[in-house]
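Changelog excerpt

This revision adds worked examples to the README so contributors can see how folded entries look when concatenated. The first example is reproduced verbatim below.
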Amino acid sequence: MSGMVTKKLRLETGGEALKVLGVQDRRLRQLERELRVAIFVRHDPEGEGVALSVRGSVSRVDKALAKIRALLAESAQAGAAPVSGESRAEANGWRQEEISALRPRASCKNSKNTPVGGILYRPEHAAPVGPRSARQQEYVSAIFDHDLTVAVGPAGTGKTFLAVAAALRALELNLVDRIILTRPIVEAGEKLGFLPGDLYEKVHPYLRPLYDAFYAMLGPERMRAWRADNIVEIVPLAYMRGRTLENAFIILDEAQNTVPEQMKMFLTRMGLNSKMVITGDITQIDLKEKAQSGLVHAMSVLKKTPAVKFIAFQHEDVVRHPLVKDIVLAYETYEGKGQKQ
């Protein structure tokens, strides 16, 4: 990530923020696209001010800051009247209940960073993302309150999607500098060496679910720009060996398909100021030796480690199509009966 810098600029009033952000942050997103920078916004919960963090190459960041300052100068000359923080949010298309949900809650340990019960991340062209069940709320709180969170449970419970949203939230708040997503490559009948294409083409189908989550929240243009600048990195687990990951939000998906050696290797990649989230479904282990799952092994090894938080999702937490919940429950019942016979 050589040549990458982050510079900050504070907007003192809601009027300045509205001028720079634009309606529904459109001006800000346009600036990101034009200059290929990443701009993160952090609102002051106790006032009207807004802190901007602009990340990219030195020349692009300087151009972006110059353009923002020019917008502010135009606003000052036009005599733009300041507006309140809530008025700014309403002008950007937020509903009143969304604004209320983002207010810090005294009951949250890390309330400024954890909008439990409200919106976790608000994509530009999609519905806001947030916890939709009590256990999902517990999961979101755990991610921001712990450096290592392990979430297990059936498909459709939002384990990966919420982890991605939390990672983007942490990036917005400048808690981390980059996001790294990884998952093990479990071959199903074909060896990677015999598949056509370069490395990217060979592993892309395995990593596609991670791309889908980011495309849904960022859109294709921002996703491509952030990947090009290494703000978002999606790699096979095997390529994590030998790295120390600092100031990063790291997600290991499909962890049930790791072996214990891989899991230990992954866990020891954590560097300073980093967060890790591990997700998996121990009922869908694709390894030939299912008893050798690194996720199951890690749950046993780390169960008494206070700094590690475990979240266990159940079939009632499924938030996909209503039929998915019934399918999960039917399989749990069927497999339970089989074990008793």
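The second example, added in the same revision:
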Amino acid sequence: MPLASFAISCRQHLRLSRYVVSPLLLFALLGACSQIPLNSNTSTSRSTTTAPSASQNTGNKTTSTSSAAVRDPLLDGLLLRQERIYRIAAPLIIKNAVLCRTQARPLLGFTAKNQYSYPPELTAAARQSLGLDERLQVMQILDGSGAMRAGLKRGDILQTIQDLTIPTGPQAEPETARMLSPILKNLSELNITVIRQNQPITVNVPLTLACAFAIDVGNTQLVNAYADGRRILLTRGLLDWLSTDEDVAIIIAREIAHNVLQHAKQLQQMATLSMVIDNLLLFKPDQIAANSSNGIKITPEKMDQEADRLALFMLARAGYDIANFTHVMQKLAQTPNASQALTYPTLHPWTEGRQSVIQATIKEIRQKQSAKKALVP
């Protein structure tokens, strides 16, 4: 069975980014390593998300006094973007497991982090603002997942999984992956003990079949998105340019489609794209590398047409409005510096051929919906 990536400590991202486990993505559906500073142009969306404060650390001992005194704008910006992406991606990856083919996996559907899950510059803020320490703590729960149905809560501190004690400290995430890998092959649910309100609570968490791609936010204002076959990265610039969740969902769906269709592999640029993603996940990326083409190839029109078609079906299955698809593609073609070497419009040129495929696919989907037929390409 193909391997699936496990979330790693951001501090160790470059060294550990290729550590993998089988058979499921455990905690980080969206990588724990999106190291994105707050920007004055933070975009709004149809659903408002607020950065969590210490008093929101559900069920555990926290300090609710004057959270403003310990807020950190860099960490708040990071959390806002992570939570937005997590919220938008949830229906796309759960509702489209059948379309993700061999890249669908069972997963728990929550992120777990400790104070070391953030870059060194934010460790103190994570400790003060979020109440994180050496232990892994539940941070985000995927809507519709087994973790949500089981009653897992934000702020729960992981104690054991299948009676195995969860590691703590700087290497807690990769060590947990290593520990759990041998026992997960034939399970449909996991027995998890957490600490909530200083008391141990045991829950049985059913695994959730979903598209097994980590989705991150990249630290650059360039408007772009990348898919290396196993990961997806949307840049901060792209999130700022696309103001609504519906618009962002379209891009996430397209990048999922590129991965499912193995376009990076066909173009022989999986390693190149992986290096670009690794760089943009850093708190301070190499800006020279970030602003260069890095040898990334322009996506052939046929591949973009294939991704457009599959993405439209994924969006419809996830309950997103597909009518706005063409408008978003046109809006991206009008981004500042659209002719720059490493931007979305240059790597995914907008053509009449793509527009024709999109219109035909939307018509096909509408017909299937009216006839109550399965939404499968």
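Reviewer comment on example two: The CA atoms of residues 50 and 179 lie 34 Å apart. DSSP finds 14 helices and 13 strands in the chain.
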